[in-house]
Amino acid sequence: MYQERPYLERNWDLFPFPPGEVDALLLTHAHMDHSGLIPKLVKEGFSGRIIATAASAELLPIVLMDAARLQEEDAAFKKKRHQKEGRKGAHPEVPLYTEADVEKALPLVETIAYGKTLSLEPSLSVVFHDAGHILGSAMIEMLAGEAGKTARLIFSGDVGQWNKPLVRDPSVFEAADVVVMESTYGDRDHRDPIDPQALLAKIINETVEAGGNVVIPTFALERAQELIYHLGRLVRTKRIPQLMTFLDSPMATEVTEVFEHHPEFLDEEAFALFKSGQNPFRFPGLKLIHSIEESKAINRIKGSCIILAGSGMCTGGRIKHHLVQNISRPESTILFVGYQARGTLGRQILDHAAEVRIFGRNLSVKAHVEEIQGFSAHAGQSGLLEWLGHFRLRPSYLFLTHGDKDVSHGLADRLAKEGWNVHVPDYGEEWEIKLV
Ligand code: ZN
């Protein structure tokens, strides 16, 4: 699913292939940009198999139901606005898909374990490998062809970062004929002045000293759980005081429960905590907020607290209410821990706007604005190069996808100089892979 301008319109286009003729869909992970159009695909005729890991299969209903609700709200809002303005928009005022469409898609999901070979056709089999990106994320290996003439294709999905506490390190490969790799951070690394956990402690302690709140816009899937994990660790090791900490996102709470169901997907450190009888996603002071009333009650708390709420880029959700309460308080801190797309409220605040508009009110930005980059779920440039570095022989083809055009081309130029046969395919471009 396209989530950024100027590509949003493409979500409404017909698929560039007949969905009814597709036999199987291989899902790398549950993030919206990878899974968000599944209900539309089913609506337009797909009735094949959807292959995903068990954790992805459990996250998918949460992510897609949330998306359907947002689509339905958006359509209603658009209708109201168009009626008020007496005009018609480019698309009918209907949601891209509804909760009922999601219900139809979910029964098609089949789970696959990491490392197991699944034969889809006599001449095509697939293996899922841990991508180390989010819970249940996968890189997909495909073996195509007949005996003695098999091509091996590796599809990276989103490549995770090394040495993260919750997810394992990304899988690496030594040989392939064709590699399709993402290139989101193909031009840069995530840079923090100090280790991200130490930076988190420093920002919290300084805000507590000043008497303010720490407000963290949080993506519900993975980032929220990772932050809770780090906060719990800081509290247990007494590097921050025990504060009231609120996870004010019903979706993040649901996702956290999936993490608790699947400790076997977690990295050693988090898994060891589970085994010792401790839950890495609970710590003294943490409260998971469900109702709007509970959410509003946070405003009445005296003294410092930590508030995690969605949406991650401040474009909607409960975070906006917490920003209204805190953004003009010099003692509070707004802490960004994820990517802020151009044009979003989050990006405006991060770019030090003097004033922002929230719920029709102009508010001056007096709170501290901080950023931690190291919690990103994506490998930075050096991580991508490291991942490629494990191939002992250069693949016949390397395709770079999933990046801003200039970023992907920048990385491609660099790799071409090092002798890679690398391409950045255009949207809709077709390649014929010749087996040698
Ligand atoms: Zn992703």
Notes on the structure:
With 436 residues, the protein is α/β, with parallel strands linked by helices. It is 32% helix and 19% strand. The protein is built from 13 helices and 18 strands. The strands form four sheets. It has a seven-stranded mixed beta sheet with strand order 4-5-6-7-8-17-18, with helices on one face. It has a six-stranded parallel beta sheet with strand order 11-10-12-9-13-16. It has a three-stranded parallel beta sheet with strand order 1-2-3. The structure holds zinc ion. Residues 29, 31, 133, 158 line the site of zinc ion.
In short:
This protein folds into two domains: 8-187 and 380-423, Ribonuclease Z/Hydroxyacylglutathione hydrolase-like (Metallo-beta-lactamase, Chain A); 196-375, Rossmann fold. 32% of the residues lie in helices and 19% in strands. It has 13 helices and 18 strands.
CATH architecture of the largest domain: 4-Layer Sandwich
CATH top level assignment of the largest domain? Alpha Beta
- Count of individual domains: 2
The total of beta strands comes to 18
CATH superfamily of the largest domain: Ribonuclease Z/Hydroxyacylglutathione hydrolase-like
| C-alpha Rg (nearest Å) | 23 Å
> What is the percentage of strand-forming residues?
15-25%
> Given the C-alpha coordinates, what overall shape results?
globular
Q: Layout of helices and strands, plus pairs?
A:
Layout: E1 24-26, H1 32-35, H2 38-43, E2 49-52, H3 54-85, H4 99-105, E3 109-111, E4 117-121, E5 124-130, E6 138-146, E7 149-155, E8 178-182, H5 196-210, E9 214-217, H6 223-236, E10 244-248, H7 250-261, H8 268-275, E11 286-288, H9 292-297, E12 305-309, H10 319-326, E13 333-336, H11 345-350, E14 355-358, E15 361-364, E16 368-371, H12 381-389, E17 397-401, H13 405-417, E18 422-423
Helix pairs in contact: 3-4, 3-7
Bound molecules: zinc ion.
Residues 29, 31, 133, 158 line the site of zinc ion.
